C-alpha cells in the first residue's frame, strides 16, 4: 500500500505547539508530562487521543515490538525512539501487522507507505515527541482520513459551529444535525420563456448553524431537480445512418462566429418587502460528496439547476450563454450583488446575509462544465473553480472534425437529448402542460441549429465554446480529468489548460487513469485534504501556503498502482516523426461488414473495439490497417497530442478516418474503474459516509488503447470549412488524436490502428467504401520524452 499526501504543510515547532494547544494536545496535563520525559509525554498524548472512540486506553492492545506491548513499554521504558513511535503510529492509523507492515521494520514501512512522519535517530526528547505527534495527526489512516480527521469524526472535538484550522485545513467542527436547509429564487436578467418578465432560478442552500459568515461551494447542476430518463431515451438519434456528402463551401470563422445580442428590456418582479428568514425548505437530495465533506467544516453549499428546470422559469438550452448567465446570477447573489426572493409570489426579497461573499464552484461533467463556463464570465465573488471531467467546448463533445461523434457509451445522444433529460419542468403536470407547446417548438429549433446532417461547426456551436472566453477568467482554476475518459474526452481539459497558461491566475491540474469519475474518495491520493487546504485559503483567507504547496500538475502513473507523480507541464514536448513507409504502399481497407457482423458490432461495440485493437485476431483485418513500431528499448512517456498525417483516398465522394493509438505488450494494467476497498470515509461526525476506492492491478492483457481520434475527410482544413472529395483522389489530412500522458514500457510496441466506422462513436452507415493510404507520404507525430 502506498499513500501520496501533497496537502501536508510544513510548520515550525512554535506553530505546531500553537495548533496542538488549539485542539487540546497541549493542555496543562500534557505540559506537566513534558517535565517527566518523552515516555510520560507520549502516554499523556495517547490518553488525550482516547477522548475519541478511535483510540483505546487499553494500551496492551497495541504492540511496540515483537516482545513488548504498549502498556509494558509505557511502564518500563525511559525513552522513545523512531522505531517504537512508528510501530505505535502504524497501529493508530489502522494499518494491519503482517499485512501492511511488520513490527521489526516499522520505519521502513512508514517510508514505503509514504506517511509524512517525523524521523530522527537515537533517543527522542519531549520536543521530538511533540513534533512526531503533530506529524502523526496529519498522516492518513488506512481508512482514507487524516488521523486528526479520524479522531474528530469519532467525537474527539465536540461540535462548536466555529471554524478550527489544523495544518492549514478546516476540521469537522460543525454539527451536521443542525444544518439549515432553505430555498431562494434568484432573479436573472433573462427571459428565455419570452413572457416579458425576468426568469427566476431556484437555489437550494444547505448551511451550518453559526453566527460567523461562511463561504459557499456552489454546484450548478441541471440534473439536480430530477431527470426525464424515459422521455430522453426516446429522443436518442439513430446512428445507423450513412455518412452524407456535404456541399463544399468557402466559409471563414468570421462567417459563423457567435456575437452576443443586446440585452433585452425586461420587467423586474415587484418588491413588497425584505426579510432575513427564508420561508421554504427542501428534503435532502443526492449531493456532491466533496460538498458534503465541506459542510461539516464551516462551508455552505448551494445547488441550482438553472433556467428550464423544475421550480425555475425558462427553456432548457444545453450549454447556451443563457444557461451560463442563469448560473452566474446565483454567484452574484451569493456575493451580495444580485436580488433574490423567498418565493415566486410574495415579492419579499432576501439577501445571503450569512455569506462572506466568497464562492467556489464544484462538480463533475455537466456540473464542472457550468463551473468552467461561469468562470469565463469573470463574475465577481467567484474565487475559484474545482472542475472535474468538464466540457470546455461542446462541439468537441458531440462533434469532432466535421463528424457527428457520440460521447463514449452514449451513441445517439446529442444536445436536444440532453436538454430533454434535464427539462425537469415536465415532472409537474401543470407546469408541463403550460409549457409543452413552447418546449416542443424550442426543441425543434435546437435540432435544426445543432445540425446532425453535416456535423459542421457553426454559430450554434461557437456560442457554446467557452474557450473563446478564457481570457475573461479571474478565478483560480483546479482541473481534474481522466486520461481514459471517453465520455468527456481529454481534449476538453487539455485545450483549457493550454489557454490558461496565458493568464495570471493559479491553475492546478490532476490527471488520473480513470474514466468519468470523481477522485475525492481515492485511497492513495489525499485529494480532499488538498482541496481543504485550497479552499481554506481561497475562501477563508487562511495563510497556509496552498498555492505553492499543491503541485501544479499531478499525474497518476499508468504503470504502478497507488503512484501519483508531480510534473511541471503537459503537452510541451516537440513531436517525433515516425514514418509509416516501412510497410507496403499503398495499403487499403474497407468499411463494409456482413449483415450479421454489422448487427453484432452495433449491439456490442465494446466487443467490436477489442477485435479492432487485437492484432492477433483477424476477423477485422479487412477493415483496418495496423502500423506497429519496433519494441521499445527503454520506457518513454507520450506527452500531449499525437497527430497522424495521412495521404489517403476514398473510393467514393465521402469518407471518414478513425484511428487508435495502442500499447501492444502483455502487462497487468490498472482497473478501468476504482475498486471499493470495503470501508467508508466519514465526511464529518456520522455524516454522509462514502466508499473508499482504489485503482488496482487487473489481470494481464496483451494491449491497451491509449487514445483515439476521428475526422471527416471533407473537413480536413477545419470544422466549418467543407472541402470537396472526389472518388479515388488522394488528399492530405492531419488527424490529431485526443491528448494523453502515458508511459510506454520497455519491450512494448506502439501501434496505430487506422479504420473507418467507429461503432461506438461515429455514424454506422455500413457503406461499401474502400480507403487507400499512400504510406510513403504518411507519418505519425508522437511527442515522446524518455521516462525518468
From TrEMBL:
Signal peptide: none annotated. GO terms for biological process: proteolysis. GO terms for cellular component: cytoplasm. This is Xaa-Pro dipeptidyl-peptidase. The keyword Hydrolase applies. Homodimer. GO terms for molecular function: aminopeptidase activity; dipeptidyl-peptidase activity; serine-type peptidase activity. The keyword rRNA processing does not apply. NCBIfam families: PRK05371.1-2. It is found in: Cytoplasm. It catalyses: Hydrolyzes Xaa-Pro-|- bonds to release unblocked, N-terminal dipeptides from substrates including Ala-Pro-|-p-nitroanilide and (sequentially) Tyr-Pro-|-Phe-Pro-|-Gly-Pro-|-Ile. Residues 532-781 form the Xaa-Pro dipeptidyl-peptidase C-terminal domain. Belongs to the peptidase S15 family. SUPFAM superfamilies: alpha/beta-Hydrolases, Galactose-binding domain-like, X-Prolyl dipeptidyl aminopeptidase PepX, N-terminal domain. Keywords: Aminopeptidase, Cytoplasm, Hydrolase, Protease, Serine protease. Residues 1-156 form the X-Prolyl dipeptidyl aminopeptidase PepX N-terminal domain. It holds the Pfam family Peptidase_S15. Its main location: cytoplasm. HAMAP family: Aminopeptidase_S15 (MF_00698). Its EC number is 3.4.14.11. The active site is at residues 365, 485, 516. Removes N-terminal dipeptides sequentially from polypeptides having unsubstituted N-termini provided that the penultimate residue is proline.
Amino acid at each position: 500500500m502506498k499513500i501520496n499526501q501533497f496537502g501536508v504543510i510544513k510548520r515550525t515547532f512554535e506553530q505546531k505547539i500553537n495548533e496542538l494547544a488549539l485542539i487540546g494536545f497541549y493542555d496543562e496535563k500534557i505540559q506537566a508530562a513534558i517535565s517527566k520525559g518523552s515516555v510520560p509525554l507520549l502516554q499523556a498524548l495517547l490518553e488525550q487521543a482516547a477522548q475519541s472512540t478511535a483510540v483505546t486506553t487499553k494500551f496492551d492492545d497495541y504492540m511496540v515490538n515483537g516482545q513488548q506491548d504498549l502498556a509494558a513499554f509505557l511502564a518500563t521504558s525511559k525513552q522513545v525512539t523512531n522505531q517504537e513511535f512508528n510501530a505505535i503510529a502504524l497501529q493508530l492509523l489502522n494499518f494491519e501487522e503482517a499485512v501492511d507492515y511488520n513490527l521489526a521494520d516499522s520505519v521502513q514501512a512508514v517510508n514505503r507507505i509514504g506517511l509524512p512522519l517525523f524521523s530522527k535517530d537515537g533517543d527522542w526528547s519531549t520536543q521530538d515527541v511533540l513534533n512526531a505527534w503533530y506529524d502523526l495527526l496529519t498522516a492518513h489512516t488506512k481508512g482514507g482520513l487524516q488521523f486528526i480527521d479520524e479522531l474528530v469524526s469519532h467525537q474527539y472535538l465536540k461540535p462548536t459551529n466555529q471554524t478550527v484550522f489544523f495544518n492549514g485545513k478546516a476540521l469537522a467542527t460543525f454539527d451536521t444535525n443542525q444544518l439549515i436547509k432553505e430555498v431562494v429564487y434568484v432573479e436573472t436578467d433573462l427571459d428565455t420563456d419570452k413572457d416579458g418578465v425576468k426568469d427566476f432560478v431556484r437555489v437550494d442552500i444547505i448551511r451550518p448553524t453559526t453566527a460567523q459568515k461562511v463561504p459557499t461551494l456552489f454546484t450548478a447542476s441541471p440534473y439536480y431537480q430530477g431527470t426525464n430518463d424515459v422521455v430522453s431515451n426516446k429522443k436518442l438519434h439513430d446512428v445507423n445512418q450513412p455518412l452524407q456528402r456535404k456541399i463544399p463551401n468557402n466559409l471563414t470563422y468570421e462567417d459563423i462566429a457567435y456575437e452576443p445580442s443586446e440585452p433585452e428590456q425586461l420587467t423586474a418582479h415587484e418588491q413588497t418587502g425584505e426579510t432575513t428568514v427564508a420561508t421554504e425548505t427542501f428534503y435532502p437530495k443526492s449531493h456532491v460528496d466533496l460538498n458534503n465533506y465541506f459542510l461539516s467544516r464551516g462551508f455552505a453549499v448551494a445547488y441550482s439547476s438553472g433556467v428550464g428546470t423544475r421550480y425555475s422559469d425558462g427553456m432548457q438550452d444545453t450549454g447556451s450563454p443563457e444557461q451560463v448567465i442563469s448560473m452566474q446570477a446565483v454567484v452574484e447573489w451569493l456575493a451580495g450583488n444580485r436580488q433574490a426572493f423567498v418565493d415566486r409570489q410574495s415579492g419579499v426579497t432576501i439577501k445571503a446575509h450569512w455569506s462572506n461573499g466568497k464562492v467556489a464552484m464544484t462538480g463533475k461533467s455537466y456540473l464542472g462544465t457550468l463551473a468552467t463556463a461561469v468562470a469565463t464570465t469573470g463574475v465577481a465573488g467567484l474565487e475559484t473553480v474545482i472542475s472535474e471531467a468538464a466540457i470546455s467546448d461542446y462541439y468537441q463533445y458531440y462533434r469532432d472534425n466535421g463528424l457527428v461523434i457520440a460521447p463514449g457509451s452514449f451513441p445517439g445522444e446529442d444536445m436536444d437529448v440532453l436538454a430533454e433529460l434535464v427539462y425537469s419542468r415536465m415532472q409537474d403536470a401543470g407546469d408541463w402542460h403550460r409549457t409543452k407547446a413552447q418546449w416542443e417548438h424550442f426543441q425543434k429549433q435546437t435540432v435544426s441549429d445543432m445540425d446532425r446532417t453535416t456535423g459542421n461547426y457553426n454559430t450554434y456551436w461557437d456560442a457554446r465554446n467557452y474557450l473563446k472566453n478564457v481570457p475573461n477568467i479571474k478565478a483560480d482554476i483546479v482541473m481534474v480529468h481522466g486520461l481514459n475518459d471517453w465520455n468527456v474526452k481529454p481534449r476538453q481539459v487539455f485545450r483549457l489548460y493550454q489557454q490558461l497558461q496565458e493568464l495570471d491566475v493559479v491553475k492546478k491540474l490532476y490527471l488520473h487513469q480513470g474514466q468519468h469519475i470523481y477522485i475525492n474518495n481515492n485511497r492513495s491520493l489525499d485529494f480532499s485534504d488538498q482541496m481543504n487546504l485550497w479552499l481554506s485559503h481561497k475562501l477563508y483567507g487562511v495563510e497556509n501556503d496552498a498555492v505553492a504547496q499543491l503541485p501544479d500538475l499531478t499525474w497518476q502513473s499508468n504503470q504502478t498502482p497507488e503512484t501519483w507523480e508531480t510534473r511541471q507541464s503537459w503537452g510541451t514536448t516537440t513531436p517525433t516523426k515516425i514514418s509509416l513507409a516501412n510497410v507496403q504502399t499503398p495499403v487499403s481497407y474497407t468499411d463494409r461488414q456482413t449483415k450479421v457482423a454489422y448487427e453484432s458490432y452495433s449491439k456490442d461495440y465494446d466487443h467490436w473495439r477489442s477485435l479492432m485493437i487485437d492484432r492477433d485476431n483477424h476477423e477485422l483485418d479487412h477493415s483496418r490497417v495496423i502500423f506497429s513500431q519496433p519494441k521499445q528499448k527503454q520506457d518513454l512517456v507520450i506527452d500531449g497530442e499525437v497527430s497522424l498525417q495521412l495521404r489517403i483516398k476514398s473510393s467514393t465522394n465521402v469518407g471518414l478516418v478513425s484511428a487508435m493509438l495502442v500499447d501492444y505488450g502483455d502487462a497487468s494494467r490498472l482497473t478501468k474503474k476504482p475498486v471499493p476497498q470495503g470501508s467508508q470515509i466519514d465526511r464529518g461526525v456520522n455524516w454522509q459516509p462514502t466508499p473508499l476506492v482504489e485503482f488496482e492491478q487487473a489481470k494481464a492483457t496483451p494491449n491497451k488503447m491509449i487514445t483515439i481520434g476521428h475526422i471527416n475527410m471533407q473537413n480536413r482544413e477545419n470544422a466549418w470549412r467543407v472541402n470537396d472529395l472526389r472518388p479515388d483522389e488522394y488528399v492530405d489530412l492531419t488527424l490529431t488524436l485526443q491528448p494523453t500522458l502515458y508511459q510506454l514500457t520497455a519491450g512494448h510496441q506502439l501501434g496505430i490502428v487506422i479504420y473507418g466506422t467507429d461503432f461506438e462513436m461515429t455514424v454506422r452507415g455500413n457503406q461499401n467504401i474502400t480507403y487507400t493510404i499512400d504510406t510513403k507520404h504518411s507519418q505519425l507525430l508522437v511527442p515522446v520524452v524518455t521516462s525518468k
